[in-house]
Every structure is written in structure tokens, then in C-alpha cells.
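Second attempt. The first submission of 3-methyl-2-oxobutanoate hydroxymethyltransferase had a stray character pasted in from the spreadsheet, which I only caught after the job came back as garbage. Lesson logged: always re-copy from the clean sequence file. Corrected sequence (278 aa) follows.
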Amino acid sequence: MSAAGEIKGMTPPDIRSRKGQTPLVCLTAYTTPVARLLDRHCDIVLVGDSVGMVLHGLSSTLGVTLDMMIMHGQAVRRGLEHALMVVDLPFGSYEESPEHAFGNAARVMGETGCSAVKIEGGETISETIRFLTARGVPVMAHVGLTPQAVNTFGGYRVQGRGADAERIRRDARAVTEAGAFSLVLEKIPEQLARQITADIDIPTIGIGASPACDGQILVSHDMLGLFTSFRPKFVKRYAELGEQAEAAIAAYATDVRNRHFPAVEHLYVNAFKAGDFT
Ligand code: KIV
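This time the job returned cleanly.
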């Protein structure tokens, strides 16, 4: 907020109005320094529950808690001035009832300062989306491969192939009618993502979907090469920071073992005689 009380930076209505315009640039962040790097370049920064896998070493997103999302949300908030901040509601925090979802969404918004929450699911969760949006909680929806349903799907497979496409179309329409301001489409056939984008009037944000989507999102640790446990086909690596970091760590280890680090320029020395450090 500025002194006059108006909201600075991107808002959910700004994002909603970008339907069919220049594609929305979206990435995930979980820490202040990464949020600062993203802020100038992104329209939306998502504090995704992918944090459980890429930062905490969990094997799925199912073990992520509301407290983890709040802690990472607070860190990201400190790094953003421009981008819209969205926080994922984790597994178990919104499915039980619309009222339960509202309590948790209000806590996340109040304690992190985010402007919106993201929840996974289509038709089955649309009543909750309607309840939240009517009470001041902007919702980004997420259909297709919804990772919190990994056990129901039996893995991280492409969703919406063949006759299953109709289920994803219904999900997309249901969350749109319920008032979501944008929709993540994850790991579905390109043609289906294209049709849904043409069919609904809120921006679609693709991940493993289609260049026709109204925006794209990736997990920042995937695209930077910092998370290498597995690599879905939809990830384009824009850097190999993991490899660079490992080379730097190996060089440090060699320097320490050979007593090449610390060198004179890294020390607080009194006057010394030539030959003291040879
Ligand atoms: O948790 C996450 O990072 C996400 C994105 C992959 C869309 O949901």
C-alpha cells in the first residue's frame, strides 16, 4: 500500500484483464533473494507447494504444511514490489469445507501479505472457490495434473488424453464460473490447452500445456538447474546453476585441503615479513 492507501504492484484484476494480451510471465519463489531477482521480470510470483520437493527434500507436495507456506510466503513478500504474489494452499488445508478453506486462506493472506491463493481441483472444489472469492480471497485455480492428487492419479502422468479431455474442460469451466481470476493448466495435451484457453474468459497459465496459453509458469529451481532429481519434459533449463555451484564447492574443498584458502587478501593481519605465508 502507498501512503494514500492505494495498492502498488500487480493486482488480481490486472492479471484478469490480461486475457488474450501479452503472455503473463510467472515463476515460483520461496526466499527473499530469489523473489528480488524475479520481481522485475515477472507478472506473478507463486509461492508454490513445490517448495516441499525443491527446498525441503520431500518426495511429493503432500507433506507441506500451512506453516511452511506462511514462512516462505513471508520471505517472498520481503522481496517483491511489482509482481502479484500468490501462495499455494497446501494439501489438507482447503478440501474439507469452504469455511475451513476460508479460515486458512485468511490466515495465509493476513500473515504473508499475499494478494491471492492458489488451490488445486476443478468441479469438486468450485463451491469453495465461489465461497472464497465472494469473501475477498482472489483464487488462482489449477486443473489437469494436480500434484496433490498424485495418489489418485497413480503418478505424474499427462491428464486429459482422449475421452478424459471432457473432464478437464468441465473443470476449467466450473472454476471460471466460480470466480477464479486465472487458471493454471498443468501437463495436458497441447490441443486441449489451446481449446480451453479459447473457451474460457480468464487467463490460462500453462505448465506443460501450450504456447497459446495466456501465460507460462515454471518452478524456478527447475529452470535454473537447481533441482535435478527429475526433469519433466515441459521444463526448459535456462541455466545449470546446480552444476556451477558444485564446481565452486569442489574448488573450495581443493583450496582448503591444499591450504590455498584463505589467502593473504582474506586475512586481517598485522604487519608481516616476506615469507610468512609461503
Ligand atoms: O507448486 C507449484 O510450484 C505449482 C506450479 C508448478 C504451478 O503449483
